[in-house]
Design a protein that fits this description.
The chain is an alpha+beta fold and about 325 residues long. Helix content is about 50%, strand content about 25%. The chain has a 5-stranded mixed sheet.
């Protein structure tokens, strides 16, 4: 009885071990399935293959157009290169033919010269010299014709018998010569008006150090002057002192219109306005001062000759283009001839 009990106990222990192994295998299978399911979910959420970026159709068309243009340029350059190579090959063959023809001609000329007599060779040399001299003569004739065309025009400068220029201190009558027209300048009349006008405007200098006033017009001109304070050093018994006084700083004569006066040819005739002003003065005591712009220097010579023939002294005062007739206390006097 005891042996049977022991045998049953041994069999029961083996079954328990098998149950344990079966349970472990089931657990492992379940764990493997759980891991596979999690791996599948993770793969579905994060795929390994990157998604393709969508490109606009316009960009694709532009890229295709650029590629076609580049391809066309390459084909065109290839055609040009082949054409140039063909042209170079053709020109090279043509040059070789010309050189060959020149060489044959030179050889033929040398052989013919060897067969000529001495007299024939002399005639050939003389003919060559004749052609060279004929070409040289033609060059000389053409050069002579060119030199004749390049000969400068000679302007005769008339000499006026006035050995010395003198500064003007007496009566002076003023004219303005611009663009081939001469006009009378009422210089003295406007200066007299300026003196009276300046006395009436001196009180303005109490508030300003300098004032500008305009008077006129008189005979087609206005006078604009500046009045202000000046400082001078004067000598006294106690030594030099600084003295302040009021005086005219500058004046300008402004024409009221751009075209003023009468033409030169008309002014030089009897009865013109210019001649009427001139005949009112005395030649021995009056100097005719003409303010001249650069465009009328040649016309000034005509007036100078006419006035000299009439016995008048003439003074020329050049004016830069665009500037008015002006004067100041520190200016220079006219120089007559």
């Amino acid at each position: 009885m005891k042996r049977r009990a022991s045998k049953e106990n041994g069999i029961g222990g083996l079954d328990s071990f098998q149950d344990i192994v079966a349970n472990l295998v089931g657990i492992l299978i379940i764990l493997v399935m759980i891991v596979m399911m999690r791996a599948r979910d993770e793969f579905s959420q994060h795929p390994t293959n990157p998604t393709a970026e969508e490109v606009p159709l316009e960009s694709v068309e532009q890229a295709r157009a650029v590629a076609l243009a580049v391809e066309g340029s390459i084909l065109e350059l290839d055609d040009i290169t082949q054409h140039q190579e063909f042209e170079l090959s053709y020109r090279k063959r043509e040059r070789d033919r010309i050189l060959e023809a020149i060489t044959l001609a030179e050889q033929e000329l040398i052989s013919q010269q060897k067969t000529l007599s001495s007299e024939s060779q002399v005639s050939v040399d003389m003919a060559a010299q004749y052609e060279a001299m004929a070409r040289e003569l033609g060059d000389l004739i053409r050069s002579r014709q060119v030199l004749k065309q390049l000969q400068p025009d000679v302007h005769v400068i008339e000499h006026m018998p006035t050995p010395m220029a003198k500064t003007v201190f007496g009566k002076e009558i003023h004219f303005r010569l611009d663009d081939g027209r001469i006009s009378y300048v009422p210089f003295d009349e406007l200066v007299d008006r300026m003196k009276r006008d300046a006395q009436n405007n001196v009180h303005k200098l109490h508030d300003h150090s300098q004032i500008t006033e305009t008077i006129g017009p008189v005979s087609g001109y206005r006078l604009r002057y500046e009045l202000g304070y000046t400082n001078d050093v004067v000598k006294t018994r106690t030594g030099p002192r600084l003295q302040q006084k009021i005086e005219m700083l500058q004046l300008e004569l402004i024409p009221v219109q751009a075209v003023l006066g009468e033409p030169v040819q008309e002014a030089l005739t009897d009865g013109s306005q210019f001649m009427q002003y001139i005949k009112r003065t005395v030649p021995e005591t009056t100097t005719v001062t003409i303010w001249v712009y650069p465009n009328s220097f040649d016309d000034f010579r005509k007036f100078k000759n006419t006035l000299f023939a009439m016995g008048f002294a003439c003074a020329g005062r050049p004016l830069p283009e665009g500037l008015y007739i002006s004067a100041s206390p520190h200016g220079t006097k006219s120089v007559r001839q």
